[in-house]
Amino acid sequence: MTDKINQKNVGTSITIEALSHRFSQNTVLDGIDIHLDAGQVLALLGPSGCGKTTLLKLLAGLLPVAPGQGRILLGDTLVAGDGCFLPPEARGLGMVFQDYALWPHMSVGKNVAFALEMRGLSKKESAPRVAQALEIVGLKGYEARHPSSLSGGQQQRVALARAIVARPQILLFDEPLSNLDRDLRESLCHEIGTLLREMGTTAVYVTHDQEEAFALADRIAVMQGGRIRQLAAPELLISEPASTLVAQFLKLGTLLHANQVPASWRHNHHGRPIAADTFDMLSMQHLFIPQAALSLTHESVRGTAVHAAEGLRGEVLTQRYRNGRFITEVQLHTADAPQSLVLATDTRLSTGQIVDLTLDWQRLRWLPQAA
Questions:
Q1: If we measure between CA atoms, which residue out of 121, 289, 66, 98 comes closest to residue 179?
Q2: Taking the CB of residue 27, how many other CB atoms lie within 10 A of it?
Q3: Run of H or E residues at 84
Q4: 289 and 262 Cβ atoms separated by less than 8 Å
């Protein structure tokens, strides 16, 4: 995509208050509260069925907010709730869908121009804006082509051009890259992130792909079971997950429940910041949070060829490649009950290989079980 954008949009803030939604007796959303500043990008991240697409549809006006089930404001304007409902075309939105939603009988130019024609612009007025939108997404000169002649990636670029041509204050994305292969997803993800920041448009991006969410978003809402389990900047999700549920979903490393923590760790810290008395104090929290677990992120466990001071040694069970590193499961050799840890290494290790381990005690955290 080109970096030529002639006019920077001014996005608007989004406020969602106590939003709930039900289909028959099934609660799909349960008390959602979000505030997104103008120009920020929010990713709704979660597994299928967690409620993220329903939330996007309510935000877009494709579903109504039932009486007493919360409200939605775009800037200072109430668009849903308290007896108010603004239709999608009155909300200043652009949307990009998973299946592109292009009209096959229309040319690329007519697909993109449709949003402008709905706003009453003439063909003469819309033509230069259509050309600019297509140039921004890297499809300059494609006006006369038809969607059937384009690749999947090109069709998604047309859908993006149609969403931005009207210069909306808010852009909504419903898993727009899920139908594309990995290399194309990575490329378009980067380009969309760059485009959003250059335009200054507020955006909400629904995805189940963690890499997309972390690459694009200023803030990420981790959703499960119709609730937001944590809403934070990407780096805080990694360093300070709010619960065992968040840590498990993000695959941050190993979770050890209180009865799984090796007893030898309590007395073998060799003066490190999380000394025995601190560890014991944290352990007392289990009297009040019985389901709490000790979180060991990939970064808190390191493999080394030198014998570890903690005396931790283990055997490599499995390895898999992810994001430039090898995620390695190691079975500990301890006097306690057998236990395994997961760490990230820069090199491939063979199954059965013996490695020595060190723990960064400052990075260990007790996490509560999500309600």
A1: 98
A2: 15
A3: strand 84-85
A4: no
What's the token pair of residue 201? 């448009």
Rounded to whole angstroms, the Cα distance separating 308 from 302 reads 10
Return the exposure string of 123-161: e unless at least 16 CB atoms fall within 10 Å of the residue's CB, then b: eeebeebbbbbbbbbbbeebbeebbeebeebbbbbbbbb
Q: C-alpha 173: how far from its chain's center? A: 12
CA distances from 193 to 3, 5, 55, 137 (A): 12, 14, 21, 12
Spatial separation of the C-alpha atoms in residues 253 and 242, rounded to whole Å: 14
Give the C-alpha distances (Å, rounded to integers) separating 137 from 131, 150, 189, 285, 294: 10, 14, 12, 53, 46
**Chain centroid to CA 166: how far?**
26
Question: Which regions of 253-305 does DSSP assign to beta strands (E)?
Answer: 253-257, 293-297, 301-304
Strand bridging mode 71-74 / 77-81: antiparallel
Q: What is the CA radius of gyration of the chain?
A: 25
Residue type, 128: P
Give CA–CA dist 241/247, Å, rounded. 6
User: Which regions of the chain are under pLDDT 70?
Assistant: 1-10, 263-291, 304-311, 334-338, 371
Region of residue 363 (left: phi > 0; alpha: psi -120 to 50; beta: else): alpha
Q: pLDDT, tens digit, for every residue of 347-369?
A: 888 899 988 888 887 788 888 87
Task: Note the residue count of the chain.
Answer: 371
Residue 66: alpha-carbon gap to chain centroid:
27
Residue that the structure tokens 């000169």 belong to:
141
Which pLDDT tens digit goes with each residue over 80-131? 999 999 999 899 899 998 888 899 999 999 999 998 988 888 989 999 999 9
Task: List, in sequence order, every residue forming a beta bridge with 205; answer none if it has no partner.
Answer: 43, 173
Distance CA 152, CA 19 (A): 35
Question: 34: how many CB neighbours lie within 10 A of its CB?
Answer: 19
Helix (H, G, I), strand (E, B) or coil at 278: helix
Q: For residues 154 and 58, what is the distance between their CA atoms, to the nearest angstrom?
A: 28
